Amino acid sequence: MTDGTEHPDAATTPAPPAAGPQRPEVPRQARQEQARAGGAELPTSPVPIAPPPPPIAPPPPSAEPDWAALAERNAADLRRRRRLWTGGIAAVLCLLAAGAAPLAARQGGAPIGEGAGAPGAHGPATELPALLADHSGRSTVVLAPAAHVREVPGGHVLRLVGTPDSFARAADQPVDVGRGFTVSAWVCSDAATGSRAVLSQGDGPAYSFELGRTDVGGRPAWSFRVRTAEPAPGAADEGATVQVVAEGAAAAGTWALLTASYDAGPHTVTLYLDGRPAASAPVPGIWPAPGALQLGRSRQHDGWGSAWSGAIGRIMLWDQALDPAQVAALGGAGGTLTTRPSASWLVD
C-alpha cells in the first residue's frame, strides 16, 4: 500500500505548481533525440526554479516626526507670508524712511515659560521683516537692530536683550491718556534686578505711563507708573508720578500676564497680575507726553532707560478701562472677553 509519495508518477493528486516562473516541459521524444544528438540523457523532470523572494515589507512608521519635512513646510509658509506682506509694508517703509532706517528683525526660539495662555517654548530662527504689523491695521511697530521676533509653538514673541539698540516703537501714539485705556502683555524677564519697561508711551522729556518691573525694598515687583504732570526742565526727581505694584512676583525667567488700566471717570489706575487685581491708586490725571508707544524702554529725564531684557508677547491695547471681570477673562479665569482691542501685536 502506498500513499503516493514513493512513486510520484502514481500519485493520485498532482503536486501544486511551484511558485514563480516554471521551466517548460520538453516532450519525451524530443528529449531522446537530444540525448542521441548530444550523447547525454536529459533529466526526466523539469529543473526546479526558485521562486522570487517575497517583497520587502516597508519599515513600520516611526513615532518620531519628520522634522526635515516640517521645517521645509514652515519655511515655505513663511516665504508665502512674506510675499503677501511685501505690498503692505512697502508703503509704510516709504513713510518711515525719513525718520527711521530699515531695521533687521527675525523670528526664532526664545526662552518661554509654561502656563495656560502663555506663549510656548523654544523655536527655530527665521527671518521676518523689520516692521511688525498691528492686527487691527491701526499702528505699525518698527524694530531696532537688536530686537527680534521669534516664532514659538502657538505664536510669536518679541525678544529683547537689554541693550540700547534692543527695542521697538510704534509709528504713532495709539493710547489717548486723556481717556480711559487698558494695556496688556505677556512678559518674561531675564533680569533679576532693576527697573525694566515692557510698554511705555512718550519720546519727549519723559513718559506718560510705563508698565514693567521694578525693585521694592530689595524685592522684585511688577509695576505700573504714570506721570501726573510734565517734569520741570532738568529735574531729576519723580515727584509727579503715581506707581502701583505687585510685590514679590517678578521673578526672572517666569511668565506673567501684566494688565494695567486707567479709568478716567474716578481717575484711578489699576495693575492686574495674571488676570487678578494687584493694586489701585487714585490719580489727578495723566500727563499727555508727546511721542509714540515704546516696547522695551521708557523715556526719563530726556533720555532712554529701563531697557527690557527678556520676551514680550500678545501685546494688546484698548481705548477704554476694562473692568475686573473682563481682565479676568483675558487671563483665562473664566468668561469670554468680547471687547476687541484697538491695537495689538504678536497675537496669533
From TrEMBL:
Residues 179-325 form the LamG-like jellyroll fold domain. The keyword rRNA processing does not apply. InterPro entries: ConA-like_dom_sf (IPR013320), LamG-like (IPR006558). Residues 45-63 have a biased composition (Pro residues). It comes from the Bacteria. Keywords: Disulfide bond, Membrane, Signal, Transmembrane, Transmembrane helix. Residues 25-34 have a biased composition (Basic and acidic residues). Residues 1-66 are annotated as: Disordered. Residues 35-44 have a biased composition (Low complexity). It holds the Pfam family Laminin_G_3. Gene3D superfamilies: 2.60.120.200. The keyword Acetylation does not apply. The chain crosses the membrane at residues 84-105. This is LamG domain-containing protein. It comes from Kitasatospora herbaricolor. The lineage of its organism: Bacteria, Bacillati, Actinomycetota, Actinomycetes, Kitasatosporales.
